[in-house]
Amino acid sequence: MSELWYTEKQTKNFGITLKVKQTLHTEQTDFQYLEMVETEEFGNMLFLDGMVMTSQKDEFVYHEMVAHVPLFTHPNPENVLVVGGGDGGVIREVLKHPQVKKATLVDIDGKVIEYSKKFLPEIAGKLDDPRVEVKVGDGFMHIAESENEYDVIMVDSTEPMGPAVNLFTKGFYAGIAKALKEDGVFVAQTDNPWFTPELITNVQRDVKEIFPITRLYTANIPTYPSGLWTFTIGSKKHDPLEVSEDRFHEIETKYYTKELHKACFVLPKFVSDLIKE
Ligand code: SAM
């Protein structure tokens, strides 16, 4: 019986390949090529334009780290926005915070939401929670139309190409600052230091010009390019490294801990060199 493997080219010369059990769904949506594939090692996986978005086995790392670092940094995150995030994983983590009264998700592609609910129920299952409002639309436009509204904004978008190209611009980060309240916090996934070092450097530079507190943290995500993933946090007032012990209320996690909340900001030299002044 011949074997079927799915290869993601992470650069033109390097990639990962995953043994496929079955292809669950493929579709060219209005915005991207959507693939849902069941793999032997990582379970069901969502790919967009040939790039790994999430997998049943390792999704918790990214979703916990995008959500809990900013949500524990802000003292009272009641109104939260997720840009992108159509697989629902960040929203699931956001709802573990009792202070959150409303979580809005804005993803440009309703098909991602539809097929994540169908094939990734443990990731997308909270999108129908009463505290959640799901909007299908361009996150760039949503941010442009928002002012002084959110306590925490998380940008869980695809790579800076296709529909997400505007979501890594200084103008977008300025829009995020406007959409946040006066003590708001935002986080964006900012890819990896091995293959996209310049993205990390550029985003830090842009965010630093807008937010008084700007930091970079990392997490280990085996199915993402290089496995060493970064997140850029911008904050108007609250420092993620100054969170008092009493702030860390108990939540169920598999990767994030209050100790890791601080440790994830300790960077390897080749990474800290990317963002030094
Ligand atoms: N965690 C993944 C990562 O780090 O690459 C991202 C997963 S999530 C599925 C990415 C989402 O961003 C997709 O559902 C895509 O439709 C959405 N997206 C891309 N451009 C967007 C835009 N301009 N506005 C809103 N959502 C967008």
TrEMBL record:
Keywords linked to the UniProt accession: Cytoplasm, Polyamine biosynthesis, Spermidine biosynthesis, Transferase
UniProt: spermidine binding residues: H63, D87, D156, S157, T158, E159
Pfam families: Spermine_synt_N, Spermine_synth
EC number: 2.5.1.16
Chain positions recorded as S-methyl-5'-thioadenosine binding sites: Q32, D107, D138, G139, P163
Pathway it works in: Amine and polyamine biosynthesis; spermidine biosynthesis; spermidine from putrescine: step 1/1
Catalytic activity as recorded in UniProt: S-adenosyl 3-(methylsulfanyl)propylamine + putrescine = S-methyl-5'-thioadenosine + spermidine + H(+)
Cross-referenced InterPro entries: PABS, PABS_CS, SAM-dependent_MTases_sf, Spermi_synthase, Spermidine_synt_N, Spermidine_synt_N_sf
One of the protein's GO biological processes: spermidine biosynthetic process
GO CC annotations, alphabetized: cytosol
Residue span, PABS domain: 3-236
Gene Ontology terms, MF aspect: spermidine synthase activity
Physiological role: Catalyzes the irreversible transfer of a propylamine group from the amino donor S-adenosylmethioninamine (decarboxy-AdoMet) to putrescine (1,4-diaminobutane) to yield spermidine.
Entry-linked HAMAP family: Spermidine_synth
Record's subunit section: Homodimer or homotetramer.
Record's protein name: Polyamine aminopropyltransferase
